[in-house]
Amino acid sequence: MITVKGNNGTGSENYSVFTIVREITMMNNYLYAIDGKTTRTYAYPCTETAVGPGGVSYVDSLRKSGLIKYARIGGDENSVITDFKNLDPLLVPAWGMHGGNTGAELIAFAQKAQKTGGMVVFMFHGVGGDYLTAPAAAHKELLEYLAKNKDIWVATFQQAMDYVSKTSK
C-alpha cells in the first residue's frame, strides 16, 4: 500500500473510512461556498482507494455518500476506455504523468483513443513545475496536436463522464 502524505504529514494509514469521507465532505462544503456547485469529481490521492492500517477501501462509502459523481484512479499509457457500459464511474482509469513524459508519449496516448473510438484521461499534477510535472514543451506539443485534430473531443473529466453516463445507458 502506498502511504499518502497530506500537507499536514498525516499518512493514509492514519485515516479511517469515516475520517476520509468526513474530510471530503468538508472540502465539498468549502467548494460549494465558493462556486455553488453540488457535483464533484475526485482523484484518489496518489491513486490510493484504501485507508487505515489494513488498507480498507473507501470507494463504496464514497458511492453511498453521494459526495462524488466521478473519480479517477491510476492507470498507465494503456488505459484506454472502450467498454463504457461497464465503466464504474468511481473507478475511471487515468494515466498519471510521472514527471518526464515526452510530447510523443502524450500524443501516442491520445492517438490510442482515436484508433479505438475510446476515451483516455490524462492526470496532470502540474505542467512545467510542481510535483510530477509534464514538461511544458511536451504539454505544448500535445495541445498543438489536439488543436490540429478536430476529430478529438477535448473535455473536462466531468463533461466527458456526463456524456458517457448519458449515452451508455
Secondary structure topology:
Layout lengths: L16 H19 L5 E3 L6 E2 L4 E2 L1 H7 L4 E4 L18 E2 L1 E2 L6 H14 L5 E2 L2 E2 L5 E2 L1 H13 L8 H11 L2
Parallel strand pairs: 1-4, 4-5, 6-7, 8-9
Antiparallel strand pairs: 2-3
Helix pairs in contact: 3-4
Structural notes for this entry:
The protein has 5 helices and 9 strands, in the order αβββαβββαβββαα. With 169 residues, the chain is α/β, with parallel strands linked by helices. The strands form 4 sheets. It has a 3-stranded parallel sheet, covered by helices on one side. Strands 2-3 form a two-stranded antiparallel ribbon. Helix 3 runs parallel beside helix 4. 17% of the residues are buried.
Mean of residue pLDDT values: 89
Distance between the termini: 35 Å
Low-confidence segments, ≥5 residues, pLDDT <50?
1-5
Kindly name the structural category: alpha/beta
In short:
This protein has 5 helices and 9 strands.
Keywords:
169 residues, alpha/beta, 3-stranded parallel sheet, 5 helices, 9 strands
